[in-house]
Amino acid sequence: MSTSPPHHAVTATSATGERTGHPAIEFVGVRKDYLSHGEAVPAVKSLDLAIAQGEFFSLLGPSGCGKTTTMRMIAGFEEPTTGKVYLDGSDVTNVSANKRDVNMVFQSYALFPHLNVLQNVSFGLERKRVGKSEIKRRVGEILEIVSLTGMEKRHPKEMSGGQQQRVALARALVNHPRALLLDEPLGALDLKLRQQMQIELKRIQREVGITFVYVTHDQGEALTMSDRIAVMNAGLIEQLGTPREIYEKPATRFVAGFIGTSNIVEGLISRVENGCAVLDLGQGERIVAPVPASVQAGRTVEVSVRPEKIDLHRTPPQATGSVLSGTVTEVVYHGTSTNYTVVTSAGSDFVVFDQNAHDAEDVASRGERVFLTWAPQHSYPIGV
Amino acid sequence: MNRVKRTLAPYLLVLPGGLWLLLFFVVPMVTMLSLSLQQGDIINGYRFTGHWQNYVDAITDYRAQMIRSLVYGLVTTVALVVMSFPIAYWIAFYGGKKKSTYLFLLLLPFFVSFVLRTISWRQILTDDGMLLHPLKEAGLLSPGFHVLGTSYAVIFGLIYNFLPFMVLPIYVALERIDPRVVEAARDLYAAPMTVFRKVIFPLALPGVFAGVLMTFVPASSDYVNSAVLGSSGTTMIGQVIQAQALANSNYPMASALSFFLMAVLLSGILVYAKALGTEDVMNAAAR
């Protein structure tokens, strides 16, 4: 059970729970198939992943992308079909859930309905045969962190969703697990409470210093809270990186489309100058995107650009970067910004977010002919 | 006008059922209570005299049958809980898509009349029947061995006849348990037996409670199983009541016995409910 992953030279796992030099969680060559009507259907196709100690790590993707299966393999509710799972350097692939030092916060909270808050939160420590006075101290401490002091005798059904959520969090955190797994924990809360809990979770994570693995389909949530994000789709990680990297430099078309809004244009590289590919579209329209030296003229690329990076002009601009022209088909006022949909001369829809920092007269109206420009560094060629 | 209608609506809805209960439950109960305090005989008729002696006679004359009935009922109920839990558990957690098929199979024999089923068991259990005969032939049992006519046969019959009434409520309670709650217990270091003891069983208690009510009461007052599978040594209180009412036409005695049985069962159940803390159990399951 406690063999070290092959690529680690030193095994330094300690039974006392001391932090070691190993990643908190590691997947090596993991695949998970489910049997459906006698056929093996992959939920996770191939997964190699290391989550660092103390990291706030998010698994982000649409439903059915394999993120929940991945989390359940960490918790021990699913066994990988092939590959290994390591916790703090020790192989836990075949260790059952009740013997793994990780705890989970379930989407529906899954509190024990027949137990009160105190009994719910003490459940794990009692199973670990922690002394009575120690349990009392730790439960008191954690209830204070999640601001539930004074609610010890309440039953789950007597509490609001937000309070139940915090009981679930306390019930897991009180055990000082190696990692805390959160399965869309804020999904059932309303927007205001959700935003409040996002900040709260981040604060708690800083306070306790435990590795958090956060499963969500909400890209906003993942971007705000995570140190790193793995964007998953169809059983594979599409991109792994910091929120900024994921947003600014989407590695695949899927990531560009799933995270925020992206405008994607495909075209032939006319020439490469100063490290930038130029896609000439005729009539003064062009797209300029920085590319690695290996990229030559004559190949096709997909270029993504974020709506807020684009400037909107009513007169032909003098720009060095990308220039497109088109007709405004939709104007939606959002308070802090105005969102325009522009059909370019090439026929593709472009979304532009214009900050409402200037006078109202600057707003273009429907049917108006406009020019779109953006700096070369805001073009991001996908998968180059 | 509308307000009046709205206020009256719930009462109007209760009216048909209420009248039914009044006519066929309350009226007979009062009649029976009055009957249990009457005196006389079948030829000259019975008159109400507040004759408490009926109760004294009922208790002194049939104490043995009363105690036997309660013991049979209790043994049956305990055996039913032990047997039904695994069945209900298996169907609820491992039944998969075939859950309703299994439940149907469980209920299938009960489409046949209660009496007929019990009589067929008599055929099976009889001294030279299909069960004992081969075993005796093989020398595994002594030729004098018999089951029919013993307490075992009666309790066996009771268990058989009341099985679904225990399995179904436990199944319903187990079925309602959120699988995530079970996973949460495992996640919080509970070994399989601990998960059962600390989470699954407490959450299934309302079902056990309902099952006990639905089996203990009718099993204790049953008169068919002992009549068909038992002997004079297994006479239950239900049989006594039946004989007093139908054979001896001693209606006051039959009524007094019935009321006494009802009082015993009710107080037993109240003690049981108190001990189990029904309020808490029901609330927990209701969520």
Automatic annotation (TrEMBL), chain A:
The keyword NADP does not apply. Gene3D superfamilies: 2.40.50.100, P-loop containing nucleotide triphosphate hydrolases (3.40.50.300). Signal peptide: none annotated. It is an enzyme of class 7 (translocase). Keywords: ATP-binding, Cell membrane, Membrane, Nucleotide-binding, Translocase, Transport. Pfam families: ABC_tran, TOBE_2. Its EC number is 7.6.2.11. Residues 25-259 form the ABC transporter domain. One of its GO terms (molecular function) is ABC-type putrescine transporter activity. It comes from the Bacteria. One of its GO terms (cellular component) is ATP-binding cassette (ABC) transporter complex. It catalyses: ATP + H2O + polyamine-[polyamine-binding protein]Side 1 = ADP + phosphate + polyamineSide 2 + [polyamine-binding protein]Side 1. The keyword DNA repair does not apply. PANTHER family: SPERMIDINE/PUTRESCINE IMPORT ATP-BINDING PROTEIN POTA, SPERMIDINE_PUTRESCINE IMPORT ATP-BINDING PROTEIN POTA. Belongs to the ABC transporter superfamily. Spermidine/putrescine importer (TC 3.A.1.11.1) family. Part of the ABC transporter complex PotABCD involved in spermidine/putrescine import. Responsible for energy coupling to the transport system. The complex is composed of two ATP-binding proteins (PotA), two transmembrane proteins (PotB and PotC) and a solute-binding protein (PotD). This is Spermidine/putrescine import ATP-binding protein PotA. It comes from Actinoplanes cyaneus. The gene is potA.
TrEMBL record, chain B:
The chain crosses the membrane at residues 12-37, 70-91, 103-124, 144-174, 195-217, 253-273. Its main location: membrane. Pfam families: BPD_transp_1. One of its GO terms (cellular component) is plasma membrane. GO terms for biological process: transmembrane transport. It is a multi-pass membrane protein. Keywords: Cell membrane, Membrane, Transmembrane, Transmembrane helix, Transport. Residues 66-272 form the ABC transmembrane type-1 domain. It is found in: Cell membrane. Belongs to the binding-protein-dependent transport system permease family. CysTW subfamily. This is ABC transporter permease. It comes from Actinoplanes cyaneus.
